[in-house]
Design the sequence.
């Protein structure tokens, strides 16, 4: 069966690379699911979780992505994130503290609202409910 080759990178490092059956990401236009033979697309990513799945819909990778782009062409998915972290790398306690502090000052403060979105994405990537 056809597969996708997926690359998730940030300016600091390659986060993950490998083959998968499906990629789900959050773009400025909404969620996108990419399967093999998907039409070419370029999307702007927003703070959210990228999920990489195998043929049985089991997660191979779950990562928090903070901005960037998603490109799909010829069964290749390139995720070029402004910053990203694997769910397994998230310091849940520290991120939850950041989230709660930012949430307390988010009214009218765009920087705090952005921090709420980033922390929420990181917590979700780590499998936490927020």
Sequence:
């Amino acid at each position: 069966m056809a597969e996708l080759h997926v690359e998730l990178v940030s300016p600091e490092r390659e986060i993950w690379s490998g083959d998968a059956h499906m990629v789900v990401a959050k773009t400025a236009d909404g969620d996108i699911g990419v399967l093999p033979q998907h039409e070419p697309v370029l999307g702007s990513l927003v703070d959210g979780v990228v999920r990489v799945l195998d043929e049985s819909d089991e997660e191979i990778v779950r990562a928090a992505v903070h901005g960037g782009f998603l490109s799909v062409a010829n069964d290749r998915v390139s995720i070029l994130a402004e910053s990203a972290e694997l769910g397994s790398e998230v310091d849940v306690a520290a991120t939850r503290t950041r989230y709660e502090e930012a949430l307390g000052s988010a009214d009218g403060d765009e920087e705090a609202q952005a921090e709420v979105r980033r922390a929420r994405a990181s917590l979700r990537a780590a499998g936490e409910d927020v």
